[in-house]
Amino acid sequence: MSVIDIRGLVKAYKGGTLALKGVDLSIGKGEIFALLGPNGAGKTTLISIVCGIVTKTAGSVRVAGDDIETDYRAARRRIGLVPQELTTDAFETVWDTVAFTRGLFGCARDDAYLERLLKRLTLWEKRHSRMLELSGGMKRRVMIAKALAHEPEILFLDEPTAGVDVELRRDMWALVRALRADGTTIILTTHYIEEAEEMADRVGVIRGGELVALGNKAELMAQLGRRTLKIFLDAPLAALPERLHGWDLDLADGGRELDYHFDSKAEETGIPRLMRQLDEAGIGWRDLTTRQSSLEDIFVSLVRAGDAS
User: Fold this and answer.
1) Contact by Cβ (8 Å): 95, 114
2) 224: CB partners within 8 A, 6+ apart
3) What pLDDT was estimated at residue 68?
4) What ranges do the domains of the chain cover?
5) Counting beta carbons within 10 angstroms of the beta carbon of residue 294, is it exposed (0 to 12), middle (13 to 18) or buried (19 or more)?
6) How many alpha carbons fall within 13 Å on the CB side of residue 228?
7) Which helix (H) or strand (E) holds 108?
8) pLDDT tens, 130-142?
9) Angstrom distance (rounded) from CA 76 to CA 271
């Protein structure tokens, strides 16, 4: 069951710049979906449209069946957003900041819920502190508390761990998993490939306003991943011999390692022929190993493909 359904979404800015070019995307209830892409790819524009911050040019967006334009209030009530920017009143307390946000959505006062929320985010001891007194990591936690104050079904996290330390990043990962266990649907944009690899059920890669890859991690690996045969040489090479120039080879580790990239699903990987050519060229080797492409490798290759086109 889709909780977010996006069809033909287009965003054009003045001057003709197309930030989104007909994006189609469905996100299931209770899943963690990661949207990857370089700066300017359209990640923030897409979630800003769904959250009602930016107006779309064309297409449709439904949140749990409610249209974001004709049923704006119902759609927005279901969504919590943690933006990249830390935007709060510096002189307001943590408690007042979160309680005020709950009231903005017309929710009845519920001090018990807010207490549970702040404790879950390790903010309870800071509830009387003013925002200006908090560290950057604590402010990020407050932004999450604000987004969850009205008990939304869907949580958007726009670069949630940008600029935070590794410990806080892992704390946030744990929180995201706990929220998903409660049934919350989570959509995050991130530059951290390990974040998507660690948490997401599905991954989408956006480039130039278009979704260029979409699927669960295993599917992406199967569709786009390549394997690398690492050949550890007896003696370093200064350069590839001419007879090897037609192969997809890279020299690594100061010429002591030869990396051969191949499609593991192909009927003919070329490995036996390559090894014969190494013998004929007098290139000795002492060990072999293979490595599957990571999600990061796939992401980088997709982005580079866009830069080259």
Assistant:
1) yes
2) 213, 293, 298, 301, 302
3) 94
4) 2-222, 226-292
5) middle
6) 16
7) none
8) 999 998 888 888 9
9) 55
DSSP-assigned letters across all residues of 220-277:
HHHHH--EEEEEEESS--SS--GGGTTS-EEEEGGGTEEEEEE-TTSS---HHHHHHH
The residue type found at 182 is D
Distance of alpha carbon 58 from alpha carbon 24, whole angstroms: 12
Which residue do the tokens 């287009």 mark?
A: 10
Amino acid at 298: I
Closest by CA position to 10, among listed 56, 61, 69: 56
Amino acid at residue number 97:
T
Structure confidence at residue 214 as a pLDDT band (50, 70, 90): confident
Beta strands in the chain (DSSP E): 2-12, 18-28, 32-36, 58-63, 66-67, 79-82, 154-158, 185-190, 202-207, 210-216, 227-233, 249-252, 257-262, 285-292
Q: Superfamily for 2-222?
A: P-loop containing nucleotide triphosphate hydrolases (3.40.50.300)
3-state secondary structure of 188: strand
For residue range 232-281, what is the model confidence (pLDDT) as tens digits?
A: 999 999 998 888 888 889 898 999 999 988 776 666 778 888 998 998 88
Distance CA 257, CA 240 (A): 11
H helices then E strands: how many in the chain?
Answer: 10, 14
Whether residue 306 has pLDDT greater than 60: no
| Fold category of 226-292 in CATH | Alpha-Beta Plaits (3.30.70)
The pTM (predicted TM-score) of the whole model is 0.73
Residue 135, sorted as left (phi over 0), alpha (psi -120 to 50) or beta, turns out to be beta
Confidence (pLDDT) at 289:
86
Scan for tokens 């604590």, then name that residue: 138
Which of 86-100, 168-182, 247-261 is least confident? 168-182
